[in-house]
Amino acid sequence: MSIPLLSETDLEIYRNDLSNPEKSTDELFNRLNGLYQRFATNEQLLTDFEYISALNSLESSYTLKKEHFNKEIAELKKQFKQLDNRIVAAEQKLRHGIPEDLLVMDKIIAEQESIIEDQEKLNNAETYIVEEVRKIDIEHGKALQKLEEQERNRETPLKGKFSAFKEQIEIAEKGITLKVRSLSLLAIIGIPLIIDLFFGFAGSPTFSKSSNNIIFNHYIFIICLILIELFLADKIRNRISYVLSITYLKDSLKTLDNLLTENKRKLAKIESAHHISLAEFVKKNGDALNY
After folding, report:
1. What is the pLDDT of residues 162-173, one digit of tens each?
2. d(CA 136, CA 129)
3. What's the predicted TM-score (pTM) here?
4. Which of 99, 118, 146, 151, by CA, is between 20 and 30 Å from 285?
């Protein structure tokens, strides 16, 4: 399989990373997107498990019904063959003419009547079996068609569902990135400005002093701005990014956790309904799976 399944361990590792402010939010968003991609594998496996297990159960039930009627048909053929032997025997008794013995004649007539009666019963039984087999074939065809429709109805929303998740994450990340840029700019400029104003009120040459030399007038602001850009700007951006992102990332993780729990509940339900474990299913059908 190209993308591994998502597990509770993966979510726990990510949960621990969210509690670490030093983690890059870019990395956290990328990993969140990766977790959703891996969960898509879980959902695809669930779909395959549900479809193939239902298909196998349907085919097994159909085979058992067909085997039952095949045995009845085989038994019917034996009875038809026995009836043919009785007809041949009755014809042989009349080959040399009608017997004069009335008792013998009565037995022949009774045998012929019995043959006709048994033949009618066998014909009715044959008609019944043929009709039942036809019904079974029709019902099986309808069940297969319904199963295929259900599979198609699951596949299309599944792909759209995770495309929507990916798009939501991208939109959220872009929105947070814009806010981070604005707030970081305010912080990087605002801190030197506050310091500059502070020293201005303290008597140093700043905005409070008039001068034709703007650099000399605001050298404290410029020095602080340079120092912050060199040593603190990245930390400020990362901290603001973390504060703005953490709520969304935690909420997304909670949603993903709930989705994984629901996925496992559905898997357990299928295992119970079709009497097969997921591990056994994957072992038997690994080559036919889409995930």
Report:
1. 888 889 999 999
2. 10
3. 0.73
4. 146
